Amino acid sequence: MRHNNSGRKLGRNPSHRKALFNNMAKALLIHGRIRTTVAKAKDLRGVVEPLITLAQRNDVHSRRLAYRVLGDHQLVKTLFDEIAPQYAGIAGGYTRIMKLAMPRKGDSAPMAIIELTKNAGEVKAESAE
Description:
With 129 residues, the protein is an alpha+beta fold. The chain has 5 helices and 3 strands, in the order αβαααββα.
């Protein structure tokens, strides 16, 4: 029984899972939207959303912590200077998962699109009304 064992293993060992989610986080921050399985998308939120929250602090220590996950100075700069300011004043909900109707062709895994909620200004305008 899996009592008190949270999280999905996804058929990978811990180092492979860490590398998988680091690479998926990079792809999501670069492209703004990626297509993956529903399980991976749900777990990816736990990597990307804390990165954006970290980027809102905008200090040296936060940049170093973000670099540990992303491994790319240019991407860290983009995260802190372009992506995080879009979400200033928003406490969370930086990503959106939309389930796709068609499963993956090979193994019939349920697929989803995970994307950044880019229009943060529209969210603030709607909440003010």
